[in-house]
Specification:
The protein is α/β, with parallel strands linked by helices and 373 residues long. The protein folds into two domains: 16-283, Aldolase class I (TIM Barrel, Alpha-Beta Barrel); 292-372, Antifreeze-like/N-acetylneuraminic acid synthase C-terminal domain (Type Iii Antifreeze Protein Isoform Hplc 12, Alpha-Beta Complex). It has helices at residues 43-56, 68-71, 80-83, 90-95, 101-114, 125-134, 149-156, 171-183, 209-217, 233-239, 266-283, 295-301, 336-339, 363-372, and strands at residues 16-18, 21-23, 30-36, 60-65, 117-122, 139-141, 162-165, 190-195, 222-226, 244-248, 304-307, 322-325, 343-344, 359-360.
Length: 373
């Protein structure tokens, strides 16, 4: 039976390690350039994508590992966005977008040379075993495989971090996938991606509020697999709570291929990454505290208790003798009740900031004020 309320997990997200980077709240946002199949089946183009992703500032680049014959039955239809580009047979389309295992091996080694993390999405257990042989630091599973229990369990048994996209799924299906990790004692290695399986995703359907919902429901890092064609959505996702981003990336949006048009080129990807990092910097921390940059304005714009008239020495202060004026630095207006009924120790000219040295307090009043300070 499907549950209507989230399961209680007795743990919290402390971050997941990918390579030398920790992914989680409070850590710098991790950004994956999703090269996918934008190499169009050419290893030299794939290498150029690696170079461009590195220049753009991505932390990782991700490819898709599959064999068309093992993934799709003959005469399978394509999605509308693929059909509009002239692809009517899914298997034929994917066959043109394959790289050989030797080419992936060379690509993995090239990423090591360049200094960018190589990630890959396997689409079968056989593909997953090959990816593990390469020595990847994490596994990424595509949205359709959220419910592919054999592949999910094989990924869990790898003991590597597993990133799982949640596009086109129900919350109950996500619950079941998270349960699968929890039941294997592997919840601490799971990262969830909010994802909309629409290419490209309109901004009106991006639904970034789900990120916060997933982060509250599950004790795992939550990110955003971005299928929009916009560059601003990375920053918006970070503001919504994403700690990791994945964005389609290409050398040229006008190149042939099913995902090129919705991908970002190198310049746009650089803009996407910098805006996401700026958004994280702007978000800061949730604790309200007085920041160093606020002290000047606080001091000049806050008010102090100020005398409205000349107050002779020995006069008992009354409300009519005081007002509130800028700047700060004197007795704060919130302490006016502590001042009422005290006696002026010396002559106080009109329009003078009152401070505690100007008035006589009883011992008990003095102690009370010190305790409030």
């Amino acid at each position: 039976m499907r549950r209507s309320k989230p399961k209680v997990y007795w743990s919290s997200s402390t971050g997941v390690l990918i390579g030398h980077r920790t992914i989680g709240p409070g850590e710098p946002v991790y950004i994956i350039a999703e090269a996918g199949v934008n190499h169009n089946g050419r290893a030299d183009t794939a290498r150029k994508l690696v170079d461009a992703a590195k220049r753009a500032g991505a932390d990782a680049i991700k490819f898709q590992v599959f064999t068309a014959e093992n993934l799709v039955i003959p005469n399978s239809p394509t999605a509308t966005y693929q059909n509009q580009q002239g692809h009517v047979d899914q298997r034929k389309m994917l066959r043109q977008l394959e790289l050989t295992r030797q080419e992936f091996t060379d690509l993995y080694r090239y990423c090591k040379e360049v200094g960018i993390e190589f990630l890959a999405t396997p689409f079968s257990i056989d593909d997953l075993e090959f990816v593990l042989e390469l020595g990847v630091s994490a596994i990424k599973l595509a949205s359709p495989d959220l419910v592919n229990v054999p592949l999910l369990e094989k990924a869990i048994l790898s003991n590597l971090p597993v990133i799982v996209s949640t596009g086109a799924s129900t919350i109950e299906e996500i619950d079941d996938a998270v349960d699968c990790f929890s039941n294997h004692g592997s919840l601490s290695r799971l990262i969830l991606f909010h994802c909309i399986s629409s290419y490209p995703t309109p901004l009106s359907d991006t639904n970034l509020a789900v990120i916060g919902n997933l982060a509250q429901r599950f004790p795992v890092p939550v990110g955003f697999s971005d299928h929009t064609s916009e560059w601003i959505t990375g920053a918006l996702a970070v503001a919504a709570g994403a700690v990791i981003l994945e964005k389609h990336f290409t050398l040229d949006r006008l190149m042939p291929g099913p995902d090129q048009a919705l991908s970002l080129d190198e310049t746009q990807m650089g803009q996407y990454i910098s805006s996401a990092k700026e958004a994280q910097m702007a978000m800061g921390t949730p604790q309200r505290r007085l920041l160093p940059c606020e002290h000047e304005v606080r001091n000049v714009s806050r008010g102090s208790l100020v005398s409205t008239i000349d107050i002779p020495s020995g006069t008992i202060l009354t409300p009519a003798m005081l007002t509130v004026k800028r700047p700060g630095g004197g007795i704060e207006p919130a302490r006016i009740k502590d001042v009422m009924g005290t006696r002026a120790l010396a002559h106080i000219p009109a329009d003078t900031k009152i401070d505690w040295t100007m008035i006589q307090l009883t011992a008990s009043e003095s102690e009370a004020i010190q305790n409030q300070s």
